[in-house]
Amino acid sequence: MPSLYVASTETFVGKSAVCVGLIDRARRDGFAVGYMKPVSVTVTHSDAAVRDEDAQFIREQFGLPDPPERIAPVLVTQGVVETIIRGGAVEFSRQLRDAHHALSRGRDLVVLEGANSWAEGAIVDLSADRVADALQAPVLLVSRYHTLVSLDAILAVQQYLGDRLLGVVLNHVEPPKYDYVATRVVAFLHARGIPVYAVLRQDPQLAGISVGDLHEHLGGHYFGDATRRERLVEHLLIGAMGSEAALSHFRRRTNKAVITGGDRTDLQLVALETSTAVLVLTGNIRPVAQVIDRADERGVAIICVADDTLTTVERAEQIFGHVRFKQSAKLQRFVTLLDEQFDFARLYQALGLIRA
Fold first, then answer.
1. Domain spanning 209-319, CATH architecture
2. Considering Cα of 134, then 140, then 144, then 149, what sign does the dihedral take?
3. Which residues fall within 8 angstroms of residue 181, CB to CB, at 6 or more apart?
4. 3-class SS at 168?
5. Domain at 3-206+324-351: CATH code
6. Which one of 61, 146, 194, 314 has the largest count of C-beta atoms within 10 Å of its C-beta?
7. Is the pTM of this model over 0.90?
8. Cα separations (Å) of 203 from 144, 192, 206, 207?
C-alpha cells in the first residue's frame, strides 16, 4: 500500500487543496484512499478535544471513518513544547507509525499532508524529511512560483530527499509568467531529475476570501443575512473619489469588497450598481436606510468598522491569500483545475497504482 507525502516549504501555497484534489480524483478513479496529517503544530482547543482544523475538515469533507486521533496522531501542543523545553522526554515516532499502519489497512493509497513548513515538527524530531523517512513515503512538493529564485527551495529539498522527492506542483503562477514556467522552468527541473506534475495558474477565485472570513478578521457590525457570508471576495477596491469616476473604477472588478468611508453614501450607492460582494464602511458610521435597502435588493453584505479607511485596507490586505481552504466553491474550482492540469497517470505509475 503506497503513501504520498504532500509537503511545502512555506505556508498558504495550496497544500491542503492539493490533498483534497488528489483524494477526490483518486476516489473517482476507483481507489480506496485514506488521509492523514502526521504532525500538526497549529492545533485548536475546545471543551471537547484538541484537534487540527485542516485534518478535521478533510475528514468531514470525505466522510472518512477513521477517528480523529488516527488522522492527526501527533499534536504538538504548547504543553508538549514546554515539556521538551524543561528537559522532559517526548516520543511520538511509534505513535505515528502505529496510526499510519492502522489507517493503511484496506486502502490503496494514503495521502499524507505535511506541516506548514519544512522545519515544523523538528522539536519532536518529526520534521518533514523525518516523517517521510519513517513512513517510507515519496514526497510531492507544492511550491509557490514567484520568480526564478523560487527554484532554490525546490533544489534544496531535492538535496535533502534525493530519490524520495517524487516531483513538484508549481502553484500560483501569475498568468504573464505561465508560458515561460510551463516550458523553460519545467524543462530545467526535468533536467535536474525533478518531474513537474502540474503548473497551476494564479486564480482570483482561489486567492479570494469569503465575506464571513473578512468580517471575522475585521470585526465590526454585520448587515445582511447569513447566506451572504459565503460569497467570495476576489478583489479589494478603495472608494475615495468622486461618484462619476467611481462608477468606471468599480466596473473594472467583479466580486469585490469596496472599502469606503461610512459617510460616503454616494460612493456606496454607486458600488451597489456594480458587481460587489460586500461594502466595508469605515469610521463607525452606520449606513443610511437607502444604502441598506439597496444592498438587500442586490444581495450585498455590509460591514461597518470603527477603523479609518487606510487602516481597514491594510488589515484587509493581510488576510487575502491567507485563509484556510474551506469554501465549497473554492474546493470545486481547484478540483477542476487539478483534473485539467495534473498528470494523474504519471502519479499512479510512479506509485505503482493500477486502475481497475
1. 3-Layer(aba) Sandwich (3.40)
2. positive
3. 145, 170, 173, 199
4. strand
5. 3.40.50.300
6. 194
7. no
8. 13, 28, 5, 6
